[in-house]
Predict the structure.
Amino acid sequence: MGFQSENIEEYHDIWVFCEQRDGKLQNTDFELISEGRKLADERGAKLVGVLLGSDVKGIASELGGYGADKVIICDDPALKVYTTDAYTKVLCDLVNDKKPEVLLVGATTIGRDLAPRCAAKLHTGLTADCTHLDIDMDKYLDFLRESSTIEVDPEKFKMDDTNLKMTRPAFGGHLMATIICPRFRPCMSTVRPGVMKKSEFDQAKADACELEMYPVSLSEDDLKTKVLEVVKATKKMVDLVGADVIVSVGNGISSDVQKGLALAEELCDALGGGVVGGSRVAVDEGWLSDDHQVGQTGKTVHPKIYVALGISGAIQHKAGMQDSEVIIAVNTNDAAPIFEVATYGIVGNVFDVVPKMIEEIKAQKAAK
Amino acid sequence: MRIYVCVKQVPDTSGKVAVNENGTLNRASMATIINPDDMNATEAALKIKDATGCQVTVVTMGPPPAKAMLQELIAMGADDGVLISGREFGGSDTFATSQIIAGALHNLGIGEDDIVFCGRQAIDGDTAQVGPQIAEKLNLPQVTYAGDIEKDGNTLKIKRLLEDGYMTVEVKTPCLITCVKELNTPRYLTVKGILECYDKPITVLDYEALKDEPLIDKTTIGLKGSPTNIFKSFTPPQKGSVEMIPGTAQEAASALAEKLAKKHII
Ligand SMILES: Cc1cc2nc3c(=O)[nH]c(=O)nc-3n(C[C@H](O)[C@H](O)[C@H](O)COP(=O)(O)OP(=O)(O)OC[C@H]3O[C@@H](n4cnc5c(N)ncnc54)[C@H](O)[C@@H]3O)c2cc1C
């Protein structure tokens, strides 16, 4: 018995499944298109965005501005709101017809519902929640040199390997694993939101982006679930992923939570405006709502400045913030693991140090 | 009516994690727990059992010691357990695993009123892939990230949690649902449950029992057959370049602000 997915030489091009909600493209789309561009250049392949929705042709060319050569659009009223059944059927039909070598999907609540279902249907592998992708072996080895403790010996690698190398944290961030899918195509990966850097938007490229309308074939029988309503959260969610400055609080503020949170807010303002985040303890204790959590089970962030106040730096927390550009940690314990990833560390009590930090930072800014 | 709950025994990654020479996890040296989301899946099934008296079967794929976990879940209220275990299954990725579990469920039989519950994801791999992949193999509709479930006869209304809110999805049995921690609070074991759990049946399904299952493609199971392979695994290096700023709170704060200004960070 043979599977189509085994004929790997028939598969070409890098695809990104682009998610829309309410007819709007999502930030992850731009991140994945930007990353996809890099992979397409490494492979000498075309980068194609795939957009499913209803009345979405108008928004497609924006993807070109981030690097897509072409967008394939599947437009149908049944695709307006995401359903597993309709999206799986349409995306798998398209993949079987056009045979992309790589298919990237955002690791959102939609992507992580859709991608495994499609992988099982297409008879191919899928790697979850990736944080780094390479095709070119030289680039991968550079990545290993920078991000691992292993001695990299190029002799031991097949330098002409063109498999997508998908790297992700495993076991709660204690290990990193690079996964390949050598026998089947497409190579599928869900990609963690907020990790890949969005490139500059280029209007000329957006204008030049090719759009292809692809016919949708769906029948009532294909649809086994019905979406009764979609409800947006009433309170505004904080935008940790997009923030330039994040000041996070942890268990270290427990002796006076109100004061600790107020200091974090003030420090944010002093640093030019940002948002307050927290460790899991801060969220579990109810000091901050879920959407503020940084870490493995919260958000992955890479702001310009990340300040950790009274956070020990458990591996699950570090997993979400260690790629921030500048990390400042304040902790009473000089052996706290947070200092292992910090740029600047101050051993001291949050309630003593932070008021002074606010004053001094304001003074420095005023002096400029 | 029968509810299957797919559960997994996982290493407790909240403590120290032991790594083998070859970069894989040294499972033998670590404490194991029942995957947290799977506890919520079990509770969801037991709630339906409380209301309807249906049969709840807990199913796991894993090494023989995973039987103890099944017993614990039976003590919580499940009626019986199924242990899918075999050398041939070892090292399976999510694709391979879901084929095997789907094959086992098919073998056990899924009726018109039945439901399969899974946890959203397991804390060792955090993939959230096995549930949807089982659903696809069994050709069942799926609803993931279930944060609330209302059942009325064969119709379920499920609150599916999203990043920016939720959607309500209606689905009919048979179906597969993956559960998140917001769904419920798992119950405790009862003394009666613990005393009785050893008398309840645990079926073992090995390779022999499943090798003729049409849902299992024998070329894509186990370590060798899995579509995805580990190319390299490694530990991230310690950054270790921290600059500690000494002095009193005042001195340290002042020195820090100066450095930030000098480097144009502020
Ligand atoms: C599967 C799993 C997933 C997880 N996911 C996440 C995640 O996404 N994000 C996350 O953050 N955690 C996560 N955790 C939890 C994580 O392991 C830690 O328990 C948590 O990050 C600790 O939070 P904390 O640093 O605020 O608290 P603690 O570990 O209690 O640290 C408090 C720190 O504050 C210091 N301190 C105390 N008083 C003061 C003071 N007055 N001034 C200054 N410093 C002070 C202490 O020295 C200590 O270092 C996860 C755990 C598991 C098992």
